[in-house]
Structures are given as structure tokens and as C-alpha cells.
Specification:
about 425 residues; alpha/beta; Rossmann fold; 2 domains; 8-stranded mixed β-sheet; about 25% strand; elongated; binds flavin mononucleotide
């Protein structure tokens, strides 16, 4: 691909301790075919030097509006971008962006960009929770920027709390999602006689209706969505459990794509080893009963609940306090099972909010569509994603194929492809159904 055809990403880097993590984000962006211009602040260069940004991006690096003035960089860099991502975004940068200050190259770029803008804040919990920062974040979100929630974990020094920069690989996934979504929106508006702001793959640049800050805002902005993922484990004794093959990848893809579309996301994760999606609040659970409690709690103010987790239908009646031993000459004792609550049917029957959209998943091995239709009617949910599963199908795979059945009788087929594509189709069906 010619350099001029590559989607153009501006990576703004603020003066936070997490600046070193932006090097990995930069690497992922360049290696996946993006042309990246790094615009650090002067403070950021205290943490990672100009040579690193320039060497890794292959582009010149400046913090000032006074370098290469003949190229008018304070305007051109922002105007030419398909995506601006600021990682880490310091409290200071969020404040400047919210108030429209323009005293260096990055803040000028933020004012001239008409493409989607993503901020990945990182700072101490006190700075993040301060009303000034929260108001600045609200202002930026209202204007259409995507501000992803910081992660919880180790901060600078010995403290722990909310304010950590999410995993760079996960920020990269958000960027990819926003670029892909922007291109989709742009294609839609071109078809509808829009201004044709798109250029090449992933391009949403320009002042057309499809581009602009709103393209990052996404159709789930201001919404709270709950996604369950993974597979529950029903313990038999301290070392054994009844489980299933779900890896959590489909649920995590749903969480990731919902963040990229602007939603506040609660991910209820059952026994998944996957890294936390950037911007999602992750609640970890083990058993079906724990998952039920977490889903009911999070669903109270949710606009949509997507039940992608594989929840055990049954659990052992008895839990042995000590490891069950084999005894010479004796057959093993039978395992008696009891039913777990049907969470999907329960939340569909008594919705926590009027108009709440409930999406279920049906993993079937035979008579896939007929069983799916029967399950949709039985459970009373709005949408049911039906896929065929087997030992080497779907579980743990990066790909999926499904039919989404709707309570209004419509069916949407999603061809074999990345789990992100199925996740995006689900949200495209959920978004217009939200009150
Ligand atoms: C060691 C150290 C770590 C810092 N880490 C952060 C941080 O993670 N987040 C933040 O908002 N500010 C952090 N600061 C404060 C910022 O560097 C300071 O507010 C600076 O003015 C930010 O400038 P900038 O937004 O132009 O990059 C840190 C400062 C120091 C000395």
C-alpha cells in the first residue's frame, strides 16, 4: 500500500508515566498499515524521547507550532487525520481540550481535527475522580469525542485504583473499531447522498456529515450495556468443576465493539483468561449463581443486556468440602444435578427498565434454526443469536457465523468471519431498538 493510501492516525501523547505504553500502541498501528504521526506534549518528552517516537513512526516529531512553519503543521496535521487518539491523556490535556486551548501542536491539532477523536485517560484516582476532570470528560463526550474509561490497577508508585491506562493492545482494538465504524457510517452517507468524506479504507476524514467528532461518538453514546461472557463452572469439590468450552471471545468482542460505539460497558466475565477490554468495567464471576447476581445488579440501569456467556443449565446438588477420592473396589458415587436459574428468561420476563433490550445466544449442535426459533419464543428476549457449535467449531475460535433472530420475525445472517463482525451486527440491531 502506498503511504498516501494508508489511513492517517495522529497519536497524541501526554506527559504521564504511561507514555511508554504508547510505544506499543504506535507499533501496532504502524504494523497494521496505518501512517502514524506522533504529536507528544513537551511533558511527554520527559518520559519518552523524541528519537523513540520518530524512529518508531518514521515521521518527524514536534511538540511546537513553530517547527516547519511553511507546512502550517498546527492546522494540516489535524485536517489530514482519519483518527486522533490521545494516549495517555493527562488531566491537563483533557482540561485543555475541553476548554479549546491551543498552546502547543497537540492542542492545535485537537481543534483542527474533524475526524473521530479518542482519548485514553491515565492518571491517579484522585485526579480522575476530581469534579473538574469529570466535567471536562463529560464536555468532551458531549461534543462527540470517545473518552474511554481508565482501567483499575497499579498506578505510578505503590498505589492501586482507577486511573491506569488500559492495555495498549485493547486501545488499538478501540481505534480499529472506531476507524471501521467511521468508514461504515461514511459509506452509508455516501449512498444517501452524503458529502463523501471517506478516502480509502478506514477513512472518515473531512467535514462531511459522516466524519467529524460525531463519528467517534457512536450510536451507543450515553447508553449503558451489560454483556456476559465466558463459561460458568459448577464446583464438585475444591479441585473439580463441571464446565464448558466457552473462551469468552465472543462476549469480549461484544464489549470491545460497544466501547468503540460509545457505550458504558459492564462486562460480566465467567472464567475467561482474556485481557480486559479497554474502557469496560469488568466483573469476574465463577458459577451460574454468581453470574445471575452480577447480571441482575448491573442490569438495573442498563439499556441493553447481551447474554453471550455459556451458563450451565445444571449444577451438582452437593459440594464436597474435601477432594473426592477413589476407593479400591468401589464404583464412583453418581453426581446428582439440580437446575440452575434461567437468567435469560428471568431478565426477559421482568425487565429492570421499560424498553430494555435483551439479547440471548443459543449454541446448538442440531436443528440449529428450528431450535433457535423455539428458544426465542420460550425465553421472551428481543434478539437471539443462533450459532452452531461443536468441539472444533466456534468455541475458542477467532471466527463465528450466526443467524440473529428477532422477536419481530426478522432474521439477519452473519457470514463466517471475525467475532468482532458478529458483535457489530448485534449492536447494529440493538441500537435502533433502544427507546
Ligand atoms: C512522574 C510523574 C508522573 C505523572 N503522571 C501523570 C499521569 O499519569 N497523569 C496525569 O494526568 N498527570 C501526570 N503527571 C503530571 C503531568 O506531567 C503534568 O500535569 C503535566 O503538566 C502534563 O502536561 P501535558 O498534559 O501537556 O502532557 C505526572 C508527573 C510526573 C512528574
Amino acid at each position: 500500500m502506498d503511504a498516501s493510501d494508508k489511513p492517517k492516525v495522529v497519536l497524541g501523547v501526554g506527559g504521564g508515566i504511561a507514555a511508554y505504553k504508547a510505544c506499543e500502541l504506535l507499533r501496532r498501528l504502524t504494523e497494521s498499515g496505518h501512517s502514524v504521526r506522533v504529536v507528544p506534549t513537551a511533558s511527554a518528552l520527559h518520559f519518552v524521547g523524541e528519537a523513540t517516537w520518530s524512529g518508531l513512526s518514521g515521521n518527524p516529531v514536534s511538540t511546537e507550532v513553530w517547527d516547519a512553519v511553511h507546512e502550517v503543521p498546527h492546522v494540516r496535521i489535524g485536517q489530514g487525520a482519519d483518527l486522533v487518539v490521545v494516549a495517555p491523556a493527562t488531566a491537563d490535556l483533557l482540561a485543555k481540550a475541553a476548554h479549546g486551548l491551543a498552546d502547543d501542536l497537540l492542542t492545535n491539532t485537537l481543534l483542527t481535527a474533524r475526524c473521530p477523536v479518542v482519548f485514553a485517560p491515565a492518571m491517579h484516582t484522585e485526579m480522575w475522580e476530581h469534579p473538574a476532570t469529570q466535567e471536562n470528560v463529560a464536555t468532551l463526550r458531549r461534543r462527540g469525542a470517545l473518552v474511554i474509561e481508565p482501567a483499575v490497577g497499579r498506578l505510578t508508585g505503590v498505589d492501586t485504583g482507577k486511573g491506569r491506562l488500559p492495555d495498549p493492545a485493547e486501545i488499538f482494538e478501540v481505534c480499529r473499531g472506531v476507524l471501521a465504524r467511521g468508514a461504515e457510517v461514511a459509506r452509508g452517507s455516501e449512498g444517501a447522498g452524503g458529502s463523501g468524506a471517506a478516502r480509502g479504507s478506514g477513512a472518515v476524514r473531512g467535514s462531511g456529515v459522516a466524519g467529524g467528532l460525531g463519528a467517534a461518538r457512536g450510536d451507543l453514546a450515553g447508553r449503558h450495556v451489560v454483556v456476559s461472557a465466558g463459561g460458568t463452572r459448577e464446583p464438585l469439590d475444591p479441585v473439580r468443576f463441571l464446565g464448558n468450552r466457552s473462551s469468552g471471545k465472543q462476549g469480549y468482542a461484544l464489549a470491545r465493539t460497544a466501547v468503540a460505539r460509545g457505550a458504558r460497558v459492564t462486562l460480566i466475565a465467567a472464567n475467561s483468561a482474556l485481557p480486559d477490554p479497554a474502557g469496560a468495567d469488568v466483573v469476574r464471576v465463577g458459577t451460574a449463581l454468581e453470574l445471575r447476581e452480577a447480571v441482575l445488579g448491573a442490569a438495573v440501569d442498563a439499556d441493553a443486556v447481551v447474554m453471550a456467556a455459556a451458563v450451565a443449565d445444571f449444577r451438582p446438588v452437593q459440594y464436597a468440602q474435601g477432594k473426592i477420592k477413589k476407593k479400591d473396589g468401589e464404583e464412583p458415587a453418581p453426581i446428582n444435578l439440580t437446575r440452575n436459574p434461567d437468567i435469560l428468561a428471568e431478565i426477559s420476563a421482568s425487565r429492570a427498565r421499560p424498553g430494555q433490550i435483551i439479547v440471548g445466544f443459543a449454541a446448538e449442535t442440531d436443528d440449529v434454526l428450528a431450535n433457535g426459533r423455539a428458544k426465542l419464543a420460550r425465553k421472551g428476549c428481543d434478539l437471539l443469536v443462533v450459532n452452531e457449535v461443536g468441539e472444533r467449531r466456534t468455541f475458542g475460535s477467532e471466527q463465528n457465523e450466526a443467524v440473529v433472530l428477532a422477536a419481530d420475525g426478522t432474521e439477519t445472517s452473519v457470514p463466517y468471519g471475525p467475532k468482532e463482525a458478529l458483535a457489530d451486527t448485534v449492536w447494529s440491531l440493538v441500537a435502533p431498538r433502544l427507546a
